[in-house]
Write a structure and sequence with these properties.
- The structure holds two protein chains of two kinds.
- By secondary structure, chain A is an alpha+beta fold.
- Chain A is 37% helix and 35% strand.
- Chain A has a four-stranded mixed β-sheet with strand order 1-2-4-3.
- In chain A, a hairpin with a 2-residue loop joins strand 3 and strand 4.
- The longest helix of chain A has 13 residues.
- Chain B is mainly α.
- Chain B contains 15 helices and two strands.
- In chain B, a hairpin with an 8-residue loop joins strand 1 and strand 2.
- The chains are: A alpha+beta, B mainly alpha.
- At the A-B interface, helix 1 and helix 3 of A face helix 2 and helix 13 of B.
- Chain A: InterPro entries: TusA-like (IPR001455), TusA-like_sf (IPR036868).
- Chain A: This is TusA-related sulfurtransferase.
- Chain A: One of its GO terms (molecular function) is transferase activity.
- Chain A: Keywords: Transferase.
């Protein structure tokens, strides 16, 4: 496992609901090998409150660590493996 | 304008503002509830909708028993298959738009660009309906059902309190189980999050307050046709005058607070529809905006993929058309119609499920490919 995982940032601010959740699920499933090995970290920027909650619930239930941090006017969701 | 009318305006704005605030904090998106049932097999939010209806059932019945308000509420009529068709189209539209009529309104208040596009689509769709109205009357006549009953108790010849008394304990038992197993709770990871079940309780109480204030539950869709009329009348006066739909006066009643008979319809002018619905619309936008500003989350971002632009506008247009066909929107039927056992609302709900399913399919195939 690399010391510093590659960070893939996806900006979904302002998008129609449920684009954020669908994109997060798609990216998580597409990159599951890299995410589980710790090579990759997904960072999603969203201003959709519902998707933020939904991502935390759904992707957390898939066995990933989901961290939500509030930034200026949006949320930064980080998805990576549970260390 | 009398003091009663001013009270209705101020009260309507306050109810709208509270509803907008609750909806924004909990993201109480009714379109999402139906969509996510099919897209993600998620039922948590739909369960809170059942809680809202369960609280509204005895609340509306108690208000009816006081004799202060007449039930069925104004605008409700005998059922027709147009309610089913309207519900189906509404289901497609609300999923494509990313929210229902009220959902797009509270998002618009919070600075959502897709919410603004859907709002414009709704006005366009409602106005388009006026042009289609002569043909629609033929469809409507062909799809009418052979009953004059407006509610299930009227159809069955039973008192409504008996149905409420039989149904509420069953629903309360079911909801209590959901409370106990935690399936009504969501992990609130966002700032200022309000649990949706709390919002559901609040919205049920606001629905009751609306019935006491204006004699009917929360409803706003006729105003979208009126917004269209207000744009069309000065721009194309002759065409506007030729549209029979804008001459209709479907609302004619005496509000519970008094002030005499008032009337209104979708046409140009500040009438009873404007009196009841405009303050509510402004209130929802203001309440949601206030909530978002307080959280430091108000932000208008214009950048949007073109597929989503088309989806929001088209979804709004379909919803606008459907809300005139149904007639009315999901909030009116689910929050206001189902608790009084309105037959139109049962048919609307029956159409809403397949509509939301098809909307979800279109959304994931054409707009946001998975």
């Amino acid at each position: 496992m690399p010391d510093v995982p590659v960070c893939k940032e996806i900006d979904l601010r302002g998008q129609i609901c449920p684009s954020t959740l669908l994109t997060a699920l798609r990216e998580t499933n597409t990159n599951k090998t890299e995410l589980r090995s710790g090579e990759l970290k997904l960072v999603i920027l969203t201003d959709n409150r519902n998707s933020t909650t939904h991502i935390s619930e759904s992707i957390g239930a898939m066995g990933y660590r989901v961290e939500v941090v509030k930034e200026q006017e949006y949320y930064r969701i980080t998805i990576d493996r549970i260390s | 304008m009398s003091s009663i009318h001013l009270s209705m305006i101020a009260g309507g704005f306050l109810l709208g503002a509270l509803a907008g605030f609750l909806m924004h904090r909990s993201d109480y998106c009714v379109a999402g509830m139906f969509r996510d049932l099919f897209l993600f097999r998620a039922t948590r939010m739909l369960k809170t909708l059942l809680l809202l209806i369960t609280v509204s059932l005895p609340l509306f019945e108690l208000i009816r028993l006081t004799g202060f308000v007449s039930v069925p509420f104004p605008f409700f009529g005998p059922p027709s298959l147009t309610n089913l068709l309207g519900g189906f189209l509404f289901g497609i539209g609300m999923v494509l738009a990313g929210g229902c009529v009220v959902g797009t309104l509270y998002r618009l208040g919070a600075g959502s660009f897709p919410g603004l596009l859907a709002f414009l689509g709704l006005v366009a769709g409602s106005t388009l309906f006026a042009g289609l109205y002569p043909q629609w009357t033929h469809v409507s006549r062909a799809l009418a059902l052979p009953t004059k009953a407006v509610t299930l108790p009227q159809l069955l010849g039973l008192p409504s309190w008996l149905l409420v008394l039989l149904l509420v304990p069953v629903l309360v038992t079911l909801i209590w189980r959901w409370f106990r197993d935690g399936s009504l709770y969501r992990s609130g990871v966002v700032d200022g999050y309000l649990q949706p079940w709390q919002a559901a309780l609040g919205l049920a109480l606001l629905g009751g307050a609306s019935v006491l204030l204006v004699g009917m539950p929360l409803g706003i869709t006729t105003s979208y046709a009126k917004f269209g009329a207000m744009l069309l009348a000065p721009l194309a006066p002759e065409y506007y005058a030729s549209l029979n739909y804008f001459q209709l006066v479907p609302l004619r009643y005496t509000p519970p607070l008094g002030g005499g008979l008032i009337s209104g319809g979708p046409g140009f002018g500040l009438d009873a529809v404007a009196l009841v619905q405009f303050p509510l619309i402004l209130g929802i936008v203001a309440g949601s905006a206030w909530s978002a500003i307080r959280l430091g989350e108000w932000r208008l971002q214009i950048k949007l993929p073109w597929r989503q632009v088309i989806s929001a506008v088209l979804g709004g247009i379909i919803m606008g058309l459907a809300s005139r066909m149904a007639p009315a929107c999901n909030i009116w039927h689910l929050f206001g119609g189902l608790p009084i056992f309105a037959l139109q609302s049962f048919l609307f709900l029956a159409g809403l499920f397949p509509g939301a399913w098809l909307g979800g399919l279109l959304l994931t195939r054409l707009v946001i490919p998975r």
